[in-house]
Structure formats: C-alpha cells, structure tokens
Amino acid sequence: METKDLIVIGGGINGAGIAADAAGRGLSVLMLEAQDLACATSSASSKLIHGGLRYLEHYEFRLVSEALAEREVLLKMAPHIAFPMRFRLPHRPHLRPAWMIRIGLFMYDHLGKRTSLPGSTGLRFGANSVLKPEIKRGFEYSDCWVDDARLVLANAQMVVRKGGEVLTRTRATSARRENGLWIVEAEDIDTGKKYSWQARGLVNATGPWVKQFFDDGMHLPSPYGIRLIKGSHIVVPRVHTQKQAYILQNEDKRIVFVIPWMDEFSIIGTTDVEYKGDPKAVKIEESEINYLLKVYNAHFKKTA
C-alpha cells in the first residue's frame, strides 16, 4: 500500500490550497475530489478576495490584517485571474455614522501591506448617480475580484507540478487510524474501481460535507459544533454600466454586494441562513430572493 505524507479530501479552494502549500514544501501529497474541482461552494462564491471590512466592527483586527496581506500576495502571484476592483459604499446615516465608516476605512487602508491598490476616499453622488436621490454621500475603497473556479484549478495544477497527485471523481469512502497512520479508502464514481493508501497526515476539507465525512467516513465525532450556513446570490442583467461594485448596508446590520460580472450581469448577495438539509439539494429560497431585491431596491433608482 502506497504511503503519502498527506492526503487531502476535498477539491475546493481550501483543499486545493492546503494541498498546493504542502506539495510546495516537499511533502508527498494526494488530493481526492468526489466530483469535479470547485464543483460546489468554490465556484458559487461572491468571487471576491477581500480583507473583510465588516469584521473590523467586531474587532477582528488580526483576521483583517492577515486577509489583506494575502490579498496582496494573490494579486502579485495571479494577475491573470485576480483584478483590483473599487467598491462604493453609500452612506445611510441612520445605520452607521460617517465617522465610524471613515475610521473603519482608514484602518482597512493601513492594516494590510497595501502596495498596489489605491486607498479609500469620500464621495458625493450627484443627479446622474445610479443611486436614489436621498443617498447623497458615500465612500469608495479597494478590494479584489477573482475567478474563483480558476483559482482552485491553479492550485490543483501546482500540486501536480510539485509532484503531488490529484484524483477527481474519486470519492473517499473511509479513513481510519491504524499503527500510527491513516488508512484512506476511495472509489472511482464512474468505474467503481477501489483504492487505498496510507498517510501520515489527513485533512478533511470537504466543505459542507465536513461533518458528514466525520460521521460516515471517519466514524468520529466532529471536534466542533459544525452548522451549515447558506449564503445565496442572485444573478441579474447588469444593473448599471459603471465598473465599480457596490457594498450596501441593510437595516439588519448586514451588508450586500452588487458586483459587475462578465460585462452583462450583476451578482447580488449574499444571504445568511442556517441550512440543515443535504448539501446536494441546496437552493435559494424565495424569501432570500426577496431579501436581496429589497436591499438592492432600497438603494438604486433602477429596480431589479
């Protein structure tokens, strides 16, 4: 039985990123994906590489600083799939005062090692603004857009370039500890061919299936109280011709992005709803669609 230093189960961005990092450090790595790479959450994201501006409100300064530093790294490493994008934040005084937003954006500009992106600035919206007339002021800052699925593929390709293996459509069926090693068994979902390996380390990066694999594949209790959160988007015909994205404040203190996509569309999202069903059956609910449209329509002249 072949022995690997590390087996990573799951071919989304977390699995691919971990596998690429390990392979780059000289470890023998195998990554298993039950379907196709980036087939689930990692190709249905907001497609943003951002530091998490809203986390400053919860004092997550270290998290934001680390995320901003990694944003700069990705911009330099993958300029073919990651692009700078300016975000406009309309000011609604009854939600957050302007001084609070200014402080947050100042920190956002300076917590990370920003070398390639312009800083934040204040805005005044005139008569030709796409926003409703009562929204007269706002702010603009920098973050990044990324082709999420291609980012996963790029990491998987790096695994192979560094001598690792990537097997898609190969479902890990079990993982158990034996004599100080992990014994991992898998099955080709097309041919039924079965595989087994030994590994010194194992990473469960199965995304929304992480608890299911603990329960059914590893027969171990999940070490954390894992619950699934559904963040849904809607894709609509392009709602404005500007190249900037918008970050909208809502009455419930959440934010919603309006992001230009593929020249002809806008992505509006996300929601934040606990989900208790089968991840394979996940879909947006009508209440989520109405929520996103309500937030959008509260800001823009052109309804969606």
From TrEMBL:
GO terms for biological process: glycerol-3-phosphate catabolic process. Keywords: FAD, Flavoprotein, Oxidoreductase. Its EC number is 1.1.5.3. It is an enzyme of class 1 (oxidoreductase). Residues 5-301 form the FAD dependent oxidoreductase domain. It catalyses: a quinone + sn-glycerol 3-phosphate = dihydroxyacetone phosphate + a quinol. The keyword Endoplasmic reticulum does not apply. This is Glycerol-3-phosphate dehydrogenase. Its cofactor is FAD. Coiled coil: none annotated. It comes from Escherichia coli. One of its GO terms (molecular function) is glycerol-3-phosphate dehydrogenase (quinone) activity. Pfam families: DAO. GO terms for cellular component: glycerol-3-phosphate dehydrogenase (FAD) complex. Belongs to the FAD-dependent glycerol-3-phosphate dehydrogenase family.
